[in-house]
From TrEMBL:
Residues 39-208 form the Calcineurin-like phosphoesterase domain. It comes from the Eukaryota. The keyword Nucleotide-binding does not apply. SUPFAM superfamilies: Metallo-dependent phosphatases. PANTHER family: TARTRATE-RESISTANT ACID PHOSPHATASE TYPE 5 (PTHR10161). Keywords: Hydrolase, Signal. GO terms for molecular function: hydrolase activity. Pfam families: Metallophos. InterPro entries: Calcineurin-like_PHP (IPR004843), Metallo-depent_PP-like (IPR029052), Metallophosphoesterase_PAP (IPR051558). This is Metallophos domain-containing protein.
């Protein structure tokens, strides 16, 4: 590793959720069953930093959404009370868990590295709009974009990294082989990272591993390394022949 780079790294969790449709409440045993009881090695007894993904928002198909619709969260039908808010309030079950909605930042290495975490699901046009507590309809996309800009601008760290569940660049299924898909909705983040000299963007969503870097001759220039991690997800067959 070059001497100019930090000699340590804290891997953020940006891959697909451990369950299909989020949590049903602050005491949902699914969290303990899929996190606390699984990651038990001594080396894993450190703070974990997670970003919310589409499954944390209770991603349901159109039929399920119709059956689960309700005017208020408190009156939603049994079995439909999924909310991303539960995912952000699990530190009472496991001290290691750190997750928030919106945009937030943590510093590491005495200020050498700043990581900006982004809740990307509200930016996807195809995201289900539910009336659940903390759901898409209660999010402020424009406000979060401004918050990301401010967090990057105010950072004095030597290294800046951004983490979000959905990729900005990808050649996988969700981004249609690099030609569209969910990546289109995430392009708002690209100029912000370039302006504030982010070193890398880590994402999940695609069920594969990718490292993408533009050529030095690219126009406009894009200095960011894009890392896609499919850890913890089902395996998919992809055709990367268009690379």
């Amino acid at each position: 590793m070059p001497a100019s780079q930090p000699a340590w790294w804290l891997p953020p969790h940006a891959a697909c959720a451990k369950y299909h449709s989020g949590l049903k409440g602050p005491a949902d045993p699914t969290f303990t069953q899929t996190f606390t009881s699984v990651y038990t090695d001594k080396s894993l007894m450190v703070p974990w930093y997670a970003v919310l993904g589409n499954h944390d928002y209770g991603e349901l198909d159109s039929k399920q959404l119709r059956l689960c619709s309700s005017p208020t969260f408190s009156s939603c039908p049994a079995g439909c009370c999924y909310s991303p808010s539960w995912q952000t309030n699990m530190s009472h079950l496991d001290w290691r868990w750190n997750a928030h909605q919106g945009a937030w930042r943590r510093s590491f290495g005495d200020g050498l590295l700043d990581i900006v975490f982004v809740d990307t699901t509200p930016f996807l046009t195809k995201s289900p709009v539910c009336s659940q507590q903390g759901g898409i309809s209660s999010q402020d996309q424009a406000g979060q974009a401004k918050a990301v800009q401010a967090l990057m601008r105010n950072s004095t760290a030597r290294w800046k990294v951004v983490v979000g569940h959905h990729p900005v660049r990808s050649y996988g299924e969700h981004c249609k082989g690099g030609k569209g898909g969910d990546c289109v909705d995430m392009q708002w983040l690209r100029p912000i990272m370039a302006e504030h000299q982010a070193a890398a963007y880590f994402s999940g969503h695609e069920h594969d591993l990718q490292l993408i870097k533009s050529k030095a001759t690219a126009s406009p220039p894009d200095p960011v390394y894009y890392v896609v991690s499919g850890a913890g997800s089902d395996i998919r067959d992809h055709d990367f022949s268009n690379w």
